[in-house]
Amino acid sequence: MLLSIAMIVKNEENNLPRALEALMALKNKIDYEIIIVDTGSEDNTIHIAKQYTNKVFKKEWTGNFSEMRNYSISKCKGEWILVLDADEVLENPNELIKFFKAKDVKKFNSATIKFKNMITNKENDYLIGTLVRLFRNRKEFYYTGRVHEQPKILEPTKLTNITLIHYGYSRESFNLMNYKYERNLKLLLEDLKEDNNNPYTYFQLAQTYGMANMPDKAYESISKAFELIKDVKDKSKYLYIYHLLSMYLNSIGEYERTIELCKEALSYRKEHLDFYYFIGKAYSLLNDYKKAEYYYDEYFKLHKKLEEGYIVEDISVSNISFAKKKEMLKERIVLAFKSKDYDYIINNYLLYNEDDIEEILLYAFIRKEKYDKVFAIYKDKEISDKNINNIIFVCDKVTKETLKNDILTIYENLLGLDKRLDNYINYIYKNIDLNKKDIEFDCYYSYKSRILAKYILEEKNSLDIIKNLNKNDMISYLIDLNKDYRGIDLFYQYSKDNFLNNNLEDLSFLNIIEDLLIKSNNIEKENYDRLLYRTIINKINFIKKVYNNEVLNKYYKKICSKDEIFFIELFNLFKIYSVDTVMYIRKLRKMIKEYPEYKVLIDYLKDSIQLDNINYNLIFNEKENLINNIQILIENNRIKEAEEILKELSNSFKFDSRINNLLGVVHYIKGEYEQALTYIGLSKIFNNDDFDATYNLALILQNLNRNKESLYYYKEALILCGDENIKNDILEIIKFLE
């Protein structure tokens, strides 16, 4: 018998089939047996094992891994023993076969095995380690140690590329990780009670804490291990401690110490890839790009040797960075960009030509006028809007940073790359008519926004092109337009023209525009006053259309959006203005903290409050008489006197429905329709069932030739009207408008 494969198992029904199936590749290639010792399985493990071998033994678990290993070894009949766990899979059986067929196999008493320790289930997410797991079957060979048992290695040892994939420490299996953590921690702490000066035990304890995601305890343990070897003359035997400590130092931002420790480790042995990895990362994070580049390049040199089959002699140090070559290639390109070594990027970009560094590649190519490279990176893939946006962004950036006013020259060299880019260049820079067939605005990008801004602001096209998009894109384009003073003017006029629009879709669009305007500092005081109340009226009208009274009265904070909640609370706050002005002011101040985005609006409301020596009690008592007198003055066409009294009353009853309606009537008589609509609109939101306000809105809108909105309010007034003669008049108007 050439080979015995020895396994100890317990409750491994999920892993065992995978491990045993991989061994079937050895069948008829070498003479081998499989020895399985079960230490107390309660699942289907033994049944699975017997399907692959008749050499299945039971042994009660003693809490000592070495005892179990040595028992399994005692059952082996082969000349050689391969020690295997159920969560390990032989990746390259041909390497194992090659080992036994080699002429020099008789020279060796043991051999190393490489391990790919899977961190997650992703194919390239692993770290590499090496252990001696293949031994001549001699009585001098045995294991020691309760946990992370160590073999008595018989030399000489052959270094091989035989590889096992180890799934046991994948962090995606929480229950398994937790079980192994608790088991290993208990055994290691027992070891420390017997010998608390063993650096290897502290090293294993650090790894155990790390497995349980307890970095502080892991760092404490590996620091203790390092402390125990500080006076040892030959530290080359303890590079595994240097390695783990460097990893934790790097993770907590101790970059200078990481560099110092790794350089010391490299002075003992230059074959460990991770030390170059850690130093390169540390220098990069310290913004010392040139030194980082040197160690990255050293990493690549050693990585190439390992890919070509170079075998590391010191097997005590694991390797986490071998699988990170792609990440390192990307970071090396980024380092070159930061140090402005654009030639390096141009010469090496094919090693890592991925979308996540597209802007860096574009910048290097365009900066060095290698336009053919731009065409090359898009040659075999479909160009997206994101790619177009990146190209334009980089062209603008290069122009600004080089202080050259020749962006059109750059763009001329990129014509023909894509129709959308050609369209942008021709429309923005050459004033050639926009070809709308080659551009779709339904997915926002800044380059499209620039096209849209010119199309709307310079060519005076309608906002309807934005209005028909989905909400997120719509908001993004409107935000960009609002940054231009022409956009602000356009939005203000749109708000004015569409005030009291009753279509839900139109109201939603109007709300977005007014929300942008109302947060702006760039609107004159007189215009802001009118905008403010138009916005509140439109917002409340929209909210009342979307939500029922139960929602508005009880559940609005759970159901409505944040801006809707703000306007509902503001609307409710207006109702206490006349009752308790001081409380009104306090609540406004509180709202600034809760809704800082509306600070401009709230500050305006606070500043417009007039606190003087007026006898408010007298005004409250005389309110009804004053309103009756105002109505008489209006009927007698004494408009100026009526307006003066209304303005005084408005200071105390700013949000009173009847006063606002009368103010609206006064402005209507004076021909000031915009102000009239604002006051009467404000009146209606506080008393939605008021016939006078509803009818007055319909009348003014009709005078403004806004027949669609006028018809809506006439129909509503008809329902509210209690006078049959007036109803007949309204019906005639409705027929005319329809």
TrEMBL record:
- Tell me the keywords, alphabetical order: Coiled coil, TPR repeat
Please report the stretch or stretches of sequence annotated as the Glycosyltransferase 2-like domain. Answer: 4-102
Could you tell me which Gene3D superfamilies the record lists for this protein? Spore Coat Polysaccharide Biosynthesis Protein SpsA, Chain A, Tetratricopeptide repeat domain
Q: Show me the TPR repeat boundaries.
A: 273-306
Q: Which Pfam family is one of this chain's hits?
A: Glycos_transf_2
Q: Where does this protein have coiled-coil stretches?
A: 623-652
Q: Decide whether keyword Nucleotide-binding is in the record.
A: no
**Domain of life, per the record?**
Bacteria
Database matches in InterPro entries? Glyco_trans_2-like, Nucleotide-diphossugar_trans, TPR-like_helical_dom_sf, TPR_rpt
Where do the TM regions start and end? none
Q: Which PANTHER family does the protein's record reference?
A: GLYCOSYLTRANSFERASE, POLY-BETA-1,6-N-ACETYL-D-GLUCOSAMINE SYNTHASE
Q: What is this protein called?
A: Glycosyltransferase 2-like domain-containing protein
